[in-house]
């Protein structure tokens, strides 16, 4: 299934959904819904913050209230979206400026998306160029030092941010300083930051009553073993489900996925996570090839 469907802004606030906590699907839809569709400016106290198409500016507290989540859960969700390269988040004046990656894939102008003429395609490219220029202007408005310190796209920063938020959620008596100390010790156990992040994700799943003791006892045995695929291995149920969910052909994608990992000797700890990443990139690659054929 491909193409677009329209949803009016505010549908998430319909009375039929009143009082319900958002799912991750609804929270993602909320971010897209509240992103600016054209460059504008947002007033935050006495400061004016410029946002471009595909960006939104809200505090974590506001999002937590809107989604009926706690702030720690919002923090973890935002960090996860960043790890999946779905958003980029910048802190400014106590607000989170969220940029939706590939925003035009979610909210293309209907008049442009349905048009078949060269003139409409030219207009779409011009709009894309204008959006790109607006984004560059926004980036230039902040110093490189501020961007480097604010954008939590660095895996190490994401690890500490999500870890601190999770420890605060599991045991509010743990101070941020204590949390960072615990995470630093965990980091020493896992030279590979991906393994350290896996430990945090495992703690989020297990939700130990004493998270500090759990971290101190955490070792390589606490993580799922690395999985290696065989060259004649049949399709995995998790991969099949993820392929169907993302609109990929399960059999053909599995063959390429399996051959790729077997040929390179690459292992992974979670089939579901590996399948999600693979199928998501496959969809993006197909979209890019389609756009190239249309432009030509």
Notes on the structure:
- The protein is mostly helical and 296 residues long.
- Helices cover 58% and strands 9% of the residues.
- The strands form two sheets. Strands 3-5-4 form a three-stranded antiparallel β-sheet. Strands 1-2 form a two-stranded antiparallel ribbon.
- A hairpin with a 2-residue loop joins β1 and β2.
- The chain is globular and about 60 Å long.
Summary?
This protein is mainly α and 296 residues long. It is built from 14 helices and 5 strands.
CATH architecture of the largest domain: Orthogonal Bundle
Q: How does the helix and strand content classify structurally?
A: mainly alpha
3D shape: globular
Mean pLDDT rating: 76
Low-pLDDT ranges: 111-123, 138-153
Termini Cα gap: 24 Å
**How many domain units?**
3
Beta-strand level of the residues, as a percent range? 5-15%
Oligomer: single chain
List its traits.
single chain, mainly alpha, Arc Repressor Mutant, subunit A, 3 domains, 5 strands, globular
Write the layout of secondary structure elements.
Layout: H1 24-34, E1 40-44, E2 47-51, E3 55-58, H2 60-67, H3 71-83, E4 87-92, E5 95-100, H4 103-106, H5 110-113, H6 118-140, H7 144-150, H8 155-170, H9 176-189, H10 193-206, H11 211-217, H12 237-246, H13 250-264, H14 271-295
Antiparallel strand pairs: 1-2, 3-5, 4-5
Helix pairs in contact: 2-3, 3-8, 8-9, 8-10, 12-13, 12-14
